[in-house]
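Lecture 7, part B: from sequences to assemblies.

Below are the input chains for today's worked example.
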Amino acid sequence: MVPKIGIVTVSDRASRGIYEDVSGPNIETVLREYLATECEYERVVIPDEVPEIVASVRRLAGQGCALICTTGGTGPAPRDVTPEAMRQVLEKELPGFGEEMRRASLASGVPTAILSRQTAGIVGKSLVINLPGKPDSIRVCLDAVFPAVPYCIELAGGPTLEGNPARVKVFRPRK
Amino acid sequence: MVPKIGIVTVSDRASRGIYEDVSGPNIETVLREYLATECEYERVVIPDEVPEIVASVRRLAGQGCALICTTGGTGPAPRDVTPEAMRQVLEKELPGFGEEMRRASLASGVPTAILSRQTAGIVGKSLVINLPGKPDSIRVCLDAVFPAVPYCIELAGGPTLEGNPARVKVFRPRK
Amino acid sequence: MVPKIGIVTVSDRASRGIYEDVSGPNIETVLREYLATECEYERVVIPDEVPEIVASVRRLAGQGCALICTTGGTGPAPRDVTPEAMRQVLEKELPGFGEEMRRASLASGVPTAILSRQTAGIVGKSLVINLPGKPDSIRVCLDAVFPAVPYCIELAGGPTLEGNPARVKVFRPRK
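Predicted structure of the full complex, as structure tokens:
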């Protein structure tokens, strides 16, 4: 069975067609580069509404996605509600992802990285990760956490994903 | 309109007049140095009681303070309850502030920085930041997060504050 | 009075005798090395069940343990529930411990450190710290936070513990 990956773009404007969703396709491009395992990708674009984010993540988890990446809605603005949806949907929060993505983003020269409330966690057998919207930041954040992603998915009961060693060094601890 | 800034000293002893509040005036001094924008400051001194902290933060947010800094009550001692009040009053918690202030404080040679439960977040259109009590630590913590403060206040719907470039480098990401 | 320290090994398999508990005795060994103060140690081995973790921590806190270390159950796997128990039992969470232990573990060359949900906090007058299971990781994590442990226990109302200066540098801020 081909593993599935879900990508959820959370954006009022992209969901209304005011502008094109660039972040979602960009995340797919980066993941295809980082993963040696061929996966099936499903992308959705939804507005910044807690119930829609919760429903999309639940639906993708229910369909057996190994990994679900969201993009958008993690800042401190009134319409940024992705973390509120995460609080409802995550069964286990993994605070180390948010810490490390903020730290990597700060180290890359973005002092406003501390404003991001991005997090990650487990829903069913799926790992859900909140990513930022900008192409450069997506790479910075994924580089920071990707080495731990395949092992995390295995621990959660998902499929085995192999990294592309030319792009990323996947790590699995010896037992 | 002149932007407002609130400073809340949380201290049983200072509120009873057992000793003078040094932290509150110290925070005002540092903020006046870091901000080029002239602001109006309101300082209050209250005991370590959750309802009083919540009420003070709500009142200052309701009066339109762009920034509210608290000092005191973030440690692990029984009377340290500022984080409990934050949990009640914050509409959006910004964990990156606490992470970065603890890290900066640790890097400055204070291993007990990990005992601080300081955090930050949004109440209405106000950014609320928990600061430590000691003058040296106030600077260390503000230096760590201040570059992101004006942009955060703008995202929350507050006024534009300009930093004093001789003291601090305010950052706003290109859109 | 001799200070008490509790060690809780959380492991389905060790509790059923499928394998021997190595982590618990290992934590005792490291703590005996790091502490100059002679302490009384109590070790328990329990399965990965929230009620049993909560009950063990409460019982050890009720018996006046200055420090309670748990080992195991902090990952993202379905049976990893130590953080869920912590959420029920901790009166004050100290997020700086988890942040710093993950960061030290990452810096030691373990990218999967971000998968750990370990935390720490106060129960009564006891400091509770979640440690990993592997001997090497136990040292890495304790090294990262131990300098702040005796001062934290004092702030929580517990006894004075002295570090062994040959092994660890305990820090107490000047008041």
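Note for the exam: The first strand of chain C starts at residue 4 and ends at 10. Keep this in mind when comparing with the next example.
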